[in-house]
Amino acid sequence: MSILELIIIAVIVYFVVDLLLRVLGGKIAEDSLTMNDLLARFFSFAIGLVIIVIGIILYFKWN
Predict the structure, then answer these.
(1) Which keywords has UniProt assigned to this entry (predicted)?
(2) CA dist., res. 20 & res. 53, Å (int)
(3) Considering only CA atoms, which of 53, 13, 33, 43 is closest in space to residue 61?
(4) Three-state SS sequence of 2-59
């Protein structure tokens, strides 16, 4: 896998997790930033960042 593929996968995972958390939290129809919405955005962003970091570490480890 190239680094570009890992970044694309991380962005896709970020948006999928963000959408799932919005649907499960019932926030899909609301645009107000409540505490739950902020937590959902934070955790989905954190998961995306972790995947990017793991991908970069594995990329340099294998090469």
Answers:
(1) Membrane, Transmembrane, Transmembrane helix
(2) 22
(3) 53
(4) CHHHHHHHHHHHHHHHHHHHHHHHCCCCCCCCCHHHHHHHHHHHHHHHHHHHHHHHHH
Report the domain count for the chain: 1
Neighbours of 48 (CB within 10 A): 21
Q: What are phi and psi of 54, to 5 degrees?
A: -60, -40
Expressed as residue numbers, the domain containing 29 is 3-62
- In the DSSP assignment, the letter for residue 62 is H
Q: pLDDT for 15-57, tens place per residue?
A: 777 777 766 766 555 555 666 777 777 777 778 778 777 877 8
Query: CA–CA separation, 11 vs 21, rounded Å?
Result: 15
Answer yes or no: are the C-beta atoms of 21 and 34 closer than 8 Å.
no
